[in-house]
Design brief:
Blueprint lengths: L13 H11 L6 H14 L4 H8 L3 H14 L21 H10 L4 H12 L5 H11 L10 H8 L10
Helix pairs in contact: 1-2, 2-3, 2-4, 3-4, 5-6, 5-7
Length: 164
């Protein structure tokens, strides 16, 4: 393909192209990182920003930013930057402990909250606890499940009349 009058990445060395291919088809990388690697490879192959944006299902402006990032930072531009957000009161790796506390008496979340505060030294709300339960319990993805039924389903007991 001819490269005239449009923005393309500077020619990329064969070894870097091989790394881009490995990133693009990796199971460990995020989908956004793989998509950026694909866009850079396509630009190197002579595809226009318009064609790349259609292939990647994104805007031409986004593809242009990816190319600019590649020119400036190379492989570092493919990785997502940290996103802002509140750090969780109880980290994800401690959620199993929280679930175990709640399973002791799933109908009394306030007493579970008191015990969680003692164990973790963090005060959490009932809403936060429900969010942790919903995120970590099998079958709790259904918004209609009560916390008690979510606990029963996660412990292997089926709710009467349940199709699961």
């Amino acid at each position: 393909m001819e490269r005239t009058g449009r923005k393309f990445v500077s020619p990329i060395e064969p070894l870097a192209l091989k790394w881009l291919s490995l990133i693009e088809f990796s199971d460990e990388e995020s989908n956004r990182t793989k998509l950026r690697a694909q866009a850079i490879r396509l630009s190197n192959s002579g595809y226009s920003i318009n064609q790349i944006s259609q292939i990647c299902l994104t805007t031409q402006e986004t593809v242009s930013k990816w190319i600019d990032g590649w020119e400036k930072y190379q492989f570092d531009s493919l990785i997502d930057k940290p996103r802002p957000g509140r750090t969780p009161l109880i980290p994800g790796e401690k959620h199993d402990e929280v679930i175990d506390i709640v399973k002791k008496n799933p109908k009394q979340l306030k007493s579970a909250i008191t015990e969680i505060e003692e164990v973790f030294g963090e005060k959490i709300s009932v809403k936060t606890l429900k969010r942790i339960i919903k995120k970590n319990c099998v079958g709790a993805g259904d918004g209609n499940l009560s916390k008690a039924s979510a606990m029963r389903m996660s412990s292997g007991k089926r709710k009467k009349g349940s199709k699961f």
